[in-house]
Write a structure and sequence with these properties.
about 375 residues, Cytochrome Bc1 Complex, Chain D, domain 2, Oxidized Rhodanese, domain 1, 3 domains, five-stranded parallel beta sheet, 16 helices, about 35% helix, about 5% strand
Length: about 375
């Protein structure tokens, strides 16, 4: 299946637009690219969102909601009609940027929950355009403007957060985050795709019209930070040890399994590798480079283990400077789900690196299909610290 032309994103608007910066962003060293991203000007539609749905598109999106979503989420979007499906009506949900997450949840589902995948790529009935319009319709029905939330990790006392969770959250969300009346907070897909600030905002402000209460007057800021950090620390599993935050590979260690054989990829359209195929070759410990082309803050939240942060807005020379030129396969991925990775691979192929591919499903599809990710730590080391 060829890519949907002009549909490089699922989400119609959101406070977060990291993968849609203008191509003229100045090339800098990778360590300073996050700063450059924050300073660069975004195009007008990225700030205000694309045009609203036409009446015909609105009617079609509402019809799809009633056909595919209402059984569990309720005909009025209030949720909890079946399988503890959450409300899709609360203004706080959409104000905090949920449209950034909901598109991929619709597309690829939530493994381990009753939420299946509805994208045609995984056997569902909806095209990417259908999903985009459905998320736009949900946001328009909520009729609330998005708010700015900070990026990056929320730091807090994890031990304090564990106690707060047991006392205040487990009765609805489950002792091990399995869900119940509340969302399954232990779902690895949810945690990999949901920013810390979104989780914290929800704890603090609750959700109108749902059992999720606002805890801003019940918990101190330190307790809210702690429970946010605790929930994030469960990303590798509720009973797993605290996850290791991986540092970016050293310049001489970009190649995964450097002494192994090359992978055997059957590329779609001479460009795309599927998540299943990439997972198979990684498990077989084949030699390759994984290039995460998102802004580095997103690499920190979750990335495929071994991936190198190489943001799409870097120059071709900068991206290629530390990549092998001996025919080693290089697989790039992004989140939107392919546009940024495609732009990087074009640069690489123009520079003579032909054994290059793009992950078809993107990182959100990868995670939503149940493949593993790890958190990262790209902060520069402070002198004197190990």
């Amino acid at each position: 299946m060829a890519p949907d032309p002009g549909l490089d994103y699922v989400v119609p608007w959101s406070p977060k637009k990291d993968d849609r910066m203008p191509p003229s962003a100045p090339p800098l060293r990778l360590a300073s690219l996050v700063t450059a991203l924050l300073l660069a000007a975004a195009p007008a539609w990225a700030q205000d969102g694309p045009p609203p749905l036409t009446p015909e598109e609105t009617a079609a999106a509402e019809g799809r909601y009633q056909q595919y979503c209402a059984l569990c989420h309720g005909p009025d979007r209030a949720g909890y009609a079946n399988d503890h499906a959450p409300s899709l009506k609360s203004p706080q949900l959409f104000a905090a940027g949920f449209t950034y997450i909901i598109g991929e949840a619709i597309a690829y589902g939530r493994p381990g929950t009753p939420m299946g995948g509805y994208h045609q790529e995984v056997g569902g009935p909806l095209s990417r355009q259908d999903i985009m319009q459905l998320t736009m319709w949900l946001g328009e029905q909520a009729a609330t403007a998005p708010i700015e939330l900070p990026d990056g990790a929320v730091t807090g006392d994890v031990a304090l957060g564990a106690k707060v969770y047991a006392d205040s959250c487990a009765s609805c969300h489950g002792a091990q985050g399995e869900g119940g009346t509340g969302t399954a907070l232990g779902n690895a897909t949810m945690l990999a795709l949901t920013p810390d600030a979104f989780i914290r905002h929800t704890i603090e402000n609750g959700r109108d019209g749902t059992p999720m209460l606002a805890f801003r007057s019940k918990l101190s800021p330190a307790q809210i930070d702690g429970v946010t950090a605790y929930i994030r620390s469960r990303s590798a599993g509720w009973t797993a040890p605290d996850p290791i935050r991986h540092a970016p590979p050293a310049l001489d260690a970009y190649i995964i399994n450097p002494d192994a054989d090359a992978p055997r990829f059957a590329l779609k359209d001479d460009l795309y590798v599927s998540a299943a195929e990439l997972d198979r070759e990684l498990k077989a410990k084949k030699r390759m480079v994984l290039l995460d082309t998102r802004v580095t803050s997103m690499w920190e939240r979750a990335h495929i283990e071994g991936a190198v942060p190489g943001p799409y807005y870097a120059s071709r020379e900068e991206v290629m400077a530390n990549l092998p030129k001996d025919g080693t396969w290089i697989v790039a991925y992004c989140e939107c789900p392919r546009a940024a990775a495609e732009s990087v691979v074009r640069k690489l192929r123009e520079g003579g690196l032909k054994n290059t591919a793009v992950l078809w499903e993107g990182i959100q599809g990868w995670v939503s299909l149940g493949y593993p990710v790890v958190p990262g730590n790209a902060a520069p080391k402070v002198a004197g610290q190990p």
